[in-house]
C-alpha cells in the first residue's frame, strides 16, 4: 500500500490527501501506521486515535513500564485501579501523601502502606494482591519474550476478563487492539534485536511521540469502513480483504450480520472516485501467531472484467470457490487486486446475485447429517441437523472443541473432510 501511494505521488503527482486507506477493525491500523512511518508518508487517523494513543494500549504499556522501572509513579497512578480493583481516589490520595512524606516512588509506596495501615483493611488486601502480582511478573519478565510477558499482563491483571465481561462492541474493539499489541511485541521478538522489554518500550514511545510529517500535499487518510460513509477520495485502498477479517469472523454464522458486512464492503468500494485497490495479506500475525486466511468471499461479487489482478496467484479464483480451505490464504506477492474505475453499481449488483446463487445452490450438497467437517474457526465437527435449503440452509454442528454451533451453510468457512 505504501509503495503504491509513494509511487502515485512521485510519478503522477497524486496528493497524499487524495489517498485513503480503509480497514474493517481499528486494530488493523497499527501495521498500516508502522508502514507509513517507515515510508515517511504523512498520515492522519480519522474518527479515532492513533494506535499507541488508545487508552487500552497506554494502560498495558504502563504495566510493562512498571516491570522495567518499579519506581515509575506516573505509570502506577494510571493502572493501580485498572481494571477496577476498588482502589479509589481517596485511598490513592492517602497512599501518595505517605509516599511524599517518606520520599517513596512507584511500587515502593505499597509496602509502606501495608506497614502503616494508612488505608482500611479491605483496601490493604487489594494493595497486597496488586503488589504480589507485579512482583511475580517482574520476577518472570527477564526470562520471557516481550509477547509472552505482555500476554501474562493481559491475563493475570484481569484486563481481558474485564473487557470480555462488558460484552459490548467497544469492548470487543479494545480486545482486538490489545491482541494487535501482542502481535507488535511478537514481531519485535522475531527480529531478535535490542534488549527485550526495555527496548520495546523505547520503540513504542518513539512511535507514539513522533510528530506527524506534513507538506503541501497533505496527509494520507486512515479510517475504518464505518467511518467512511459519506466521504469520497480519488484513490482508495481497502486493506484486509480476507475471510475472518472482512467479512468479520463473527458474521459467518449470522445471515443478517453477513449482509451488513456486504453493505459495508459496498460502501467502501463506492468511496473511490478514480481508483480502488483491494488488498489482502498472504499471512498475518494475530495475537502473535502467524495465520493464513482465504481471500474475502466479497471478491467473488465483483465482475472479473472490472478487475486487474496484481497478485502472483489465483486470488480471485480462490475467492470464488464455495469452500476455501482453512489453510489456503492469499498467495505470496503484492497481494492486491485493483478495481477499474469503470465498475458500475449495476454490474456489481448482478454479480453479487449470481455469486450468491452459485454459493447457495452448491452449499447444500455435501452437508448430510453425520458428515464430518472442518470449520476455519471452530475446528473439527459433525453435522447433527439440517434446517431449510438453498441460501437458507442452516446446519447444527457439534464441534469437538467448541460444542454445538448453528451455522449458515452459504457463508460458513467450512468444508467436509
UniProtKB/TrEMBL annotation:
GO BP terms, alphabetized: recombinational repair
InterPro entries: DNA_helicase_UvrD-like_C, DNA_helicase_UvrD/REP, P-loop_NTPase
Domain (UvrD-like helicase C-terminal): residue spans on this chain: 1-230
Residue spans of biased composition, Low complexity class: 346-359
Stretches that traverse the bilayer: none
Residue span of region Disordered: 324-359
Chaperone listed as a keyword: no
Keywords noted in UniProt: ATP-binding, Helicase, Hydrolase, Nucleotide-binding
GO cellular component: cytosol; DNA helicase complex
Example of a GO MF term: hydrolase activity
Name of one Pfam family that matches: UvrD_C
Comp. bias (Polar residues): 324-345
Protein name (Swiss-Prot/TrEMBL): DNA 3'-5' helicase II
Biological source species: Candidatus Entotheonella gemina
Lineage: Bacteria, Pseudomonadati, Nitrospinota/Tectimicrobiota group, Candidatus Tectimicrobiota, Candidatus Entotheonellia
